[in-house]
């Protein structure tokens, strides 16, 4: 068994390394670069600058995706999940189309559900439904790990309008979290014709291996370790708490979703009805999770909620005076140098002249009052380096809550608009 583990570990590393030099890997990197470029432009509009370069962001997420792809490959090879790669490519085509409508639909749950249901209804295209859904479940499990460790990085502070109750709206701060990862991975393939380098599997195989394989797979079929490229995306809005806290909660929910999808997909190898169950569960459950989170974002509690005569801290710049003092996200400014702070104008008046010594009284998000101190006799203190939330601030981001599968509504709306304009 140890020999089996070592072979999987070694062959996975070799195959992924070769994939890094393939054209399809770099096509996905370029696609993700365009998505990050849009995010960089929005960050520039909000903050007035970019905290890190586009290159840094792409390289950072590519390294994280490389680790994620290695984990996906190890799980796939260990359990012996045999997949028709032609079926997997359908996921890519549909996912790319959906990503053009909305970047958050760069998710294989939606594309796998769509192609599986089409195949079940029309029997065309012929798709390895169980195989692709098991792989999608594993990808989502690894995505939950990436979100837990990396999902909060680069979160952008925004201002939104939220509905507290029917007809009553309030202004709140939030953090827009968007991460994209290119996932170079290896799967066990059959019925595959390609010029890409593949590796014939000659392992010291346990008697139970491969565990998941199509019913029509012939006993003497040649199995190939085939390098492919996937992409994962994460989009969320941190309203209730700090981005790191919200991303970890999202990761926990997504991991449960992935485990349930894995179980349903595994049963679908033996029971045909579970192909329908798994195919419908993947997009509907995933979309339900998104809508549930969006509802909480729009109507739930927020540590960044704007209040009358109150200054709340939404964002703290790196290496700023506020960071050095220990001011945190969600803190409420009470006073500076003994002067009560109830508006941005009062905050600006204090810094109209450079301060050499400063003490700030704040209330943290748990209601605890604390006093913080800082001094700079050489250069003086001209600002705290924070973005604040008040009742008067104007929202710059709109929460997208349009019900289930807004991309279907979007497509239908565009077709209707095209036909209407054409007839007129």
Could you explain how this protein is built, in words?
- Residues 288-343 form the PDZ domain.
- Keywords: Membrane, Transmembrane, Transmembrane helix.
- InterPro entries: PDZ, PDZ_6, PDZ_sf.
- The protein is of the alpha+beta class and 424 residues long.
- The chain folds into two domains: 2-299, no CATH class; 311-389, Pdz3 Domain.
- The protein contains eleven helices and eleven strands.
- The protein has helices at 2-19, 23-47, 54-79, 85-101, 108-122, 129-150, 243-268, 273-299, 321-325, 344-350, 406-423, and strands spanning 82-84, 156-165, 168-190, 199-200, 224-238, 311-316, 332-336, 339-340, 357-363, 369-375, 386-389.
- The strands form two sheets. Strands 6, 7, 8, 9, 10 and 11 form a six-stranded antiparallel sheet that branches.
- α1 packs antiparallel against α3 (54-79).
- The N and C termini lie far apart (71 Å).
């Amino acid at each position: 068994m140890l020999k089996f583990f070592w072979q999987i570990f070694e062959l996975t590393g070799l195959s992924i390394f070769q994939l890094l030099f393939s054209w399809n890997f770099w096509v996905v990197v370029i696609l993700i670069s365009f998505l990050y470029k849009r995010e960089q432009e929005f960050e520039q509009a909000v903050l007035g600058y970019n905290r890190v370069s586009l290159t840094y962001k792409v390289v950072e997420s590519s390294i994280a995706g490389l680790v994620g792809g290695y984990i996906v490959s190890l799980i796939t090879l260990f359990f012996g999940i045999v997949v028709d790669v032609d079926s997997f490519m359908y996921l890519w085509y549909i996912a790319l189309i959906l990503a053009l409508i909305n970047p958050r639909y760069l998710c294989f749950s939606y594309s796998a559900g769509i192609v599986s249901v089409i195949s079940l209804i029309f029997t065309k295209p012929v798709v390895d439904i169980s195989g692709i859904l098991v792989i999608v479940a594993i990808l989502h499990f690894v995505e939950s790990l990436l979100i837990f460790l990396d999902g909060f990085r680069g979160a952008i502070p925004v201002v939104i309008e939220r509905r507290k109750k029917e007809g009553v709206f309030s202004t709140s701060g939030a953090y827009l979290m968007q991460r994209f990862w290119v996932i170079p991975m290896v799967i066990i393939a059959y019925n595959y014709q390609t010029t890409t380098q593949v590796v014939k599997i000659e392992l010291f195989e346990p008697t139970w291996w491969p565990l998941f394989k199509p019913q029509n797979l012939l006993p003497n079929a040649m199995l190939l370790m085939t390098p492919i490229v996937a992409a994962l995306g994460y989009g969320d809005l941190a309203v209730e708490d700090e981005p790191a806290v919200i991303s970890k909660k999202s990761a926990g929910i997504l991991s449960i979703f992935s485990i349930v999808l894995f179980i349903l997909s595994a049963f679908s190898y033996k029971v045909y009805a579970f192909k329908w169950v798994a195919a419908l569960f993947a997009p509907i459950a995933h979309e339900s999770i998104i809508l549930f989170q969006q509802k909480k974002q729009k109507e739930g509690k927020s540590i960044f909620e704007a209040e009358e005569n109150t200054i709340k801290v939404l964002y703290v710049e790196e290496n700023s005076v506020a960071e050095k003092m220990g001011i945190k996200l969600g803190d409420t400014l009470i006073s500076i140098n003994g002067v009560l702070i109830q508006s941005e104008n009062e905050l600006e008046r204090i810094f109209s002249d450079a301060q050499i010594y400063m003490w700030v009284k704040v209330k943290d998000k748990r209601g605890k009052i604390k006093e913080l101190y800082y001094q700079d006799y050489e250069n003086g203190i001209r600002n705290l380096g924070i973005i604040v939330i008040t009742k008067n601030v104007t929202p710059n981001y709109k929460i997208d809550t349009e019900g289930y599968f807004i991309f279907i509504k979007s497509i239908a709306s565009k077709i209707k608009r095209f036909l209407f304009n054409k007839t007129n």
